[in-house]
Amino acid sequence: MALRLGSKAEAAGYRLAAFDSIGSTNTEALARARAGEAGPIWFVTTEQTSGRGRRQRAWIAPRGNLAASVLEVMHLPPSVAATLSFAAGLALERALQQVSLEARARGGVAADFALKWPNDVLADGKKLTGILLEAENVGADRLAVVVGMGTNVVAAPDDTPYPAASLHSLGIHVSAEDLFAALSDAWTEIRGIWDEGRGFGEIRKQWLARATRIGEPVSIQSGSATIDGIFETIDDTGCLIVRTADGRRVPISAGDVYFRSAASSGAA
User: Would you place residue 263 in the very low, low, confident or very high pLDDT band (cuts 50, 70, 90)?
Assistant: First the structure.
């Protein structure tokens, strides 16, 4: 089965560069942007051999998994473009819901999908996808934005700091090709809502409605600091807001989130 764009993505003018195997779809997208590619274009493979996630962690996609990066060139500041990672989470969650329902109609099982700050989709509480947004200036006022999205379709790594799962391990037997077609259409719709950042308020609202463990204790590892408290919300820039035991509301712009029991968090 060949990788293909969904009908909505095609109608919106997206193009597709599909690879049998590649080192990193994000790396390829950035290289094309530096060479003058203005997008919008998807770089997609079902086998990625040297991909990377946040904090330069490896994100390898064995054959049958999905690695997809979308490149768009924008006239926006990086701080606004960064909120696209929340749009990506929504698009992935929507696409996963769609293919899961289709699989269930064929006799498969259902899964509970949820969003985990800053850029994961969980399935039954386990990490299913990862998102990596990268941006570079490619002109006086032009920003090349690449949003990489990887999904464990047939296999998931064992040596991860957070438990991981694949769609197949959950009993959801779909293909990377079908998931990508659904994702490209979902991205087109959510990207339209985001609207160069003007619609982030609606994105934030939808993201929070799908977020996991709001109101529960969390521990945030941000650089060398650890911050414990209650996950309250995300603000209008995408920062996670943690209420600490002494009542402070601390904004977190980057970090790894670990869920904790109320007793261990020390939060009120």
Answer: very low
Q: What is the pTM of this model?
A: 0.91
245 with 256: CB under 8 angstroms?
Answer: no
Cα distance between residue 226 and residue 217, in whole Å: 13
* CB < 8 Å & 24+ apart, contacts of 177-181: 177/1, 177/2, 177/3, 177/4, 177/46, 178/1, 178/99, 178/102, 179/66, 179/95, 179/96, 179/99, 179/151, 179/153, 180/3, 180/4, 180/42, 180/44, 180/66, 180/68, 181/4, 181/5, 181/6
Give SS3 for 93.
helix
Instruction: Calculate Rg over the CA atoms of the chain.
Output: 18
3-state DSSP call for residue 260?
coil
* CA pair distance 237, 240, nearest whole angstrom: 9
pLDDT in tens, 160-193: 777 899 999 999 999 999 999 999 999 999 999 9
Of 22-26, 45-49, 60-64, which gets the smallest average pLDDT?
A: 60-64
Nearest to 119 by CA among 162, 87, 158: 87
